[in-house]
Amino acid sequence: MGKLPCALLLFLLLTNPAFSWKKEEFRNCDQTPFCKRARSRQPGSCPLTATDISISGGDLVAKLVAKETNPETPTKPLVLKISAYQDGVMRLKIDEDQDLNPRKKRFEVPDVIVPEFSDKKLWLQSLKQEEENSGLISVVHLSDGYEGVIRHNPFEVFVREKGQNGKKVLSLNSNGLFDFEQIKDKKDENEDWEEKFRTHTDSRPYGPQSISFDVAFYGADFVYGIPEHATSLALKPTSGSGVEASEPYRLFNLDVFEYIHDSPFGLYGSIPFMISHGKSRGSSGFFWLNAAEMQIDVFDPNNSNEFLKLPSDQKRIDTLWMSEAGVVDAFFFVGPSPKDVVRQYTSVTGPTALPQLFSIAYHQCRWNYRDEEDVYNVDSKFDEHDIPYDVLWLDIEHTDGKKYFTWDKMLFPNPEEMQNKLAAKGRRMVTIVDPHIKRDDSYFIHEEASKKGYYVKDKTGNDFDGWCWPGSSSYLDMVDPKIRSWWGEKFSCKNYVGSTPSLYIWNDMNEPSVFNGPEVTMPRDALHYGDVEHRELHNAYGYYFHMATAEGLAKRGEGQDRPFVLSRAFFPGSQRYGAVWTGDNTAEWEHLRVSVPMILTLGLTGMSFSGADVGGFFGNPDTELLIRWYQLGAFYPFFRGHAHHDTKRREPWLFGERNTELMREAIHVRYMLLPYFYTLFREANSSGTPVARPVWMEFPSDEKTFSNDEAFMVGNCLLVQGIYTQGAKHAEMYLPGDQPWYDFKNGNSYKGGETYKLDVLEDSVPSFIRGGTILPRKDRFRRSSTQMANDPYTLVIALNQSMSAEGELYIDDGKSFEFQKGAYIHRRFTFSNGKLTSSNMRPDDTTAGNGKFETESTVERIVLLGLSNAPKNAVIEPANQKVEIEMGPLLLRGGRGLSVPTIRKPDVRIGDDWTIKLL
Q: Pick the catalytic residue: 95, 379, 508, 808?
């Protein structure tokens, strides 16, 4: 192709309005053969029965055999294995029998399950059989109170409470919808061996190989999870007689510009993990480790029986899971609490990596800051307007012709000096590195990758050539560990010329995005390491790219610097490698609102470190919307302002003095709460419990919280609700529980268990401190989080009706991996009987390691909320020091309203044991 046509094609690709949301650009279920086939099957159509059931190698094993076999087209048996693990986890695997030599081995997703999970296996010793009305079942012990069960005929797998009449918790194939399309030995004229969509044709050299089955969640009022979709937290039914025609929830990572809200359409990432919750039973979870395209139906629990015709004396929600390829590798989580389910899930895929402290502060981004002068100007304006920030980002225009690991020498002639000047203020930079590699023989990355054969191949075995920002591009085959290791080496300061240790990375477009590909992605018949078709691993491509980048930064830091990598695409396990965000949102009030259920869903499925672009990526937010987004975004786990290059500049000082003040105060709230957020990230790192939580996670018996996705908890202490409509004067907010809540800004007390009509104020969104908790803060305002390291703490004690409260604080160096060796401080604060006690939560040296971390930071203020008839003095032990209790503001800056009892400058060290007794 000549230069002019090539350039014209690129122009058309990059300016085509098809890149904004157009429904016809993407497949629906009827246009997706495996989904259409699965949806057409009738309950009870599964012909399989379980035979040859026994215990082998500590597992229950069996064969699934068709009840009636056509001699002309015999169905080969499938092999089934059930394994039990500690903490109430059951694993089910179903695959083709490798002893029968299928044409190819089906793909099983590697490097997602953490290695330590195998150490938790419980070796099954015995199998018992029971006769039920519906036939024979085989039962194995799963955990205290629970059993794993396989029904022989018709085949069904379920978890039940212990005992012959134990209630079901989760089941698979209760409705007989299981189907497993086995790889064909030869082409059948009746089979479709290629797929067409619009102008694209994908070959299917092994024929259809889809899997589908039904999963039932018993005792459930709602189901949640399976991101990423711009929709409600509680998943709406997609099927049932009472439901209008709907698409299933699609899991297929795609580059979707200007996505619409309230839609089951799949976006940038896929986590096939669903959680149920109900008042009667609590929570349970189901996870299918599969990287192929997936579609999931949720049946209307009020009308599903009209289709499913499954009698049951238990309330339940039925779902249908459909995937294009892969194997059944499914995990059942028994709960019974929501936090139990998340802990069980992250025991399989790993907890959130503990981020560096700077990365949970505020980030300033735009496509694009033009040059070094622009960078310096933005940086200085933050200081001039007394607005803290920690990270400044550079998008694709900083490179030399969209070649990653390079700099435009005219715009950024001195990148190291630029980074070092920001680092001198405790600030970092982030540059973008995408997976598409420009096909330019003078580009060192392309030259080396091409020579070594490191690219994904097309169906003919040649390097796949697609179009993205640089034009003609190829894509690294990150499934291969060798290629990931090679990629990681590119992030060393030696190889990434112009980089410094204070530079971190942003992985965008890693779904992967291919502008001229089917549905703006890679063809399904492209070939990866091990001759795996792209259709088999599509949803994990971005995960491996994220992994390789994070491991490269860890290698650059020689284990002393935790990586920070933001990724747009994600998959189970992505939480181990960095943060994600909700992609290319729009400056609309509805996008502000839907950001909350999107972030909560990510947290429920392991991805605690997530956020949405503050202000909306596309479009120009009006000033009120931008302020409200900052006020809500200050409570996101990941807090970043970002905008498209066609939008007006929107740095916080560009909207007039009063509006600058409002945005500054919102950002200051985040910095004030950094000790609390960091403690929550450590909790996520230890137990999987998300930083931002659905209200029902903290109040699992309160039915009013089950479908509430306008408010959310930050940890167990803060309840926040955004303002989602323009010009709102009032907001209704439900305060759950039977304990008091205290206004975050003024300390006013509200009774729990009631809905309040609140006056909407311009300087904040509704936010409350939960009675019975202790909130750690840092109240001195600095330019960046780094400059706050030695600042003193404030403890806000929010008393419950029993005049007691408790909280935690976690501190380490905020950057290295030394915390894994025990170099940290973990304190528990308890207030009871008029006495505040600080005690050590860190295990002894034998279990935590021998590392040490110390800080000279002290407690500067102790604020008491809910204390009637406050005494005038207190005594500090063991120093036997008497201090006065004064009346003072709840917030030193930006607060209003009541004066509250305050102990000023008790000067106890934050890391020591001490008590303060009210006299």
A: 508
